[in-house]
Amino acid sequence: MQDTQKTIERILKLKEECNAVILAHNYERGEIQDIADFTGDSLGLSIQATEQEADVIVFCGVHFMAESAAILSPEKTVLLPEIHAGCPMASMVTAEALREEKKKYPDAAVVCYVNSTADVKAESDICCTSANAVEVVNSLEEDEVLFVPDKNLADYVSRFTGKKIIPWNGYCPTHNQILTTDVIKAKKDYPNAEVLAHPECRREVVDLADKVFSTTGMVEYARNAGDEFIIATERGIIHKLQKDNPGKKFYNVSEFTVCPEMKAIDLDSLLLSLEKMQYVITVPEDVSAKARIALDRMLEIKR
Ligand code: 13P
Ligand code: SF4
Asked: What is the pLDDT of residues 30-74, one digit of tens each?
C-alpha cells in the first residue's frame, strides 16, 4: 500500500517535470483511470489529443489509440507504457487487404473504425468511432460504404442508414463472445436492471439491450437515468460508472468481459514509461498525412 502510494507520488512528480498529460481509456484498470488527467471513449480521447498543451501525452490504452494521438499531435511525444498492448480487431485488416477489397467496390466510400492501424486509416476516406459511426456514414455522399474492420458495428450502422454497407469480417473478441444466454441470465438475476450494450456486440445481443452506446455514452446515460444496469461491454467501464454513481448498481453481463490488452498497463509500467520516456509511438510521415485526413474528417463531425 505504501509502495503504491510512493509510485503514485513519483508518477505525479515526473508528470509535472516532463509537462506530460495522462489519457486513459474507460476500459483501463481502475488505478490507471484514477491517476489519469482525462478518461474517455475513443472519440473523447482523440479530441483530447488535439487539445492538449502538454509536451508529452502518455496514452493508457492500446496501440491504435496512441498512434491516432501521434497523428493528431505530431509535435508532441506520445508514449504507450506497454508496447505490446494492441487491439486484436485492429489486426484483422491490413492496408494491403483493404486495397484489394477497394478494387471490388470502386464506387464505395471507405469508413474505417478507429480500432485500426494507421496504415489502414491512410487507405480510408473517413474514420468513425462507436459514438459517431451512424452520423459519419450518413454524412457521406456515396450510396455504398465499405466498413472496416468491425462487422458488428457495421451491422449496427446498417440499421440506421439507407446506404448499402459492405462489412469487413473483423470483430472484437471481448464483445463478440458476449452471448444472448449471458444477457438472458443477467436479466433473470437482475430483473429491474436496464441492459446497456456496446455496438461491438453481436446483433442478437444488441437486440436484447435497452440502450446501445459507446462507453462514454453509457457513462452519460447512467448519470442521468435509472438505478440498476447490466453492462454488456468490457468490465473496466464499471469502475467509472460506480465512481460516478455510488448509489447505483452495475452488473457485468458475464464473467468473461475482459480485454487483456486493456489491462496491460499498471502503475509500475506507467512510472517506467515516464522515467524512461518509453515507448515512443511514431507514424511515418506519408502514412500520417493520409490517415490524418480521415481522422480530421471524422472530427469535423464530432459528437
Ligand atoms: P469506445 O470507448 O469508443 O466505445 O471504444 C470501445 C473499444 O472497444 C475501444 O477499444
Ligand atoms: Fe480491441 Fe475489443 Fe480490446 Fe477494444 S475491447 S481494444 S476493440 S479487443
From this structure: 999 999 999 999 889 988 988 989 999 999 999 999 999 999 999
Ligand 2 pocket, CB under 6 A: 27, 62, 87-89, 115, 172-175, 234, 259, 261-262
Asked if residue 261 has its Cβ within 6 Å of ligand 1, the reply is no
- Co-location of 163 and 295 in the same domain: yes
Q: Which domain holds residue 226?
A: 174-258
Residues 6+ apart with CB under 8 A from 262: 25, 27, 28, 61, 62, 85, 234, 236
**Are 295 and 167 in the same domain?**
yes
Q: What is the CA radius of gyration of the chain?
A: 19
Q: Whose CA is nearest to atom 5 of ligand 2?
A: 259
Q: Of 6, 77, 19, 30, which Cα lies nearest the Cα of 271? A: 6
- Quick one: which ligand is closest to 235's CA? 2
Q: What is the CATH number of the domain that holds 277?
A: 3.40.50.10800
pLDDT in tens, 79-112: 999 999 999 999 999 999 999 999 999 999 999 9
Say yes or no: 291 and 161 in one domain: yes
Establish whether residue 269 lines the binding site of ligand 1, counting it when its CB lies within 6 angstroms of any ligand atom. no
- Counting from 1 in the atom list of ligand 1, the atom nearest the Cα of 200 is 8
ipTM above 0.95? yes
Domain count, the chain: 3
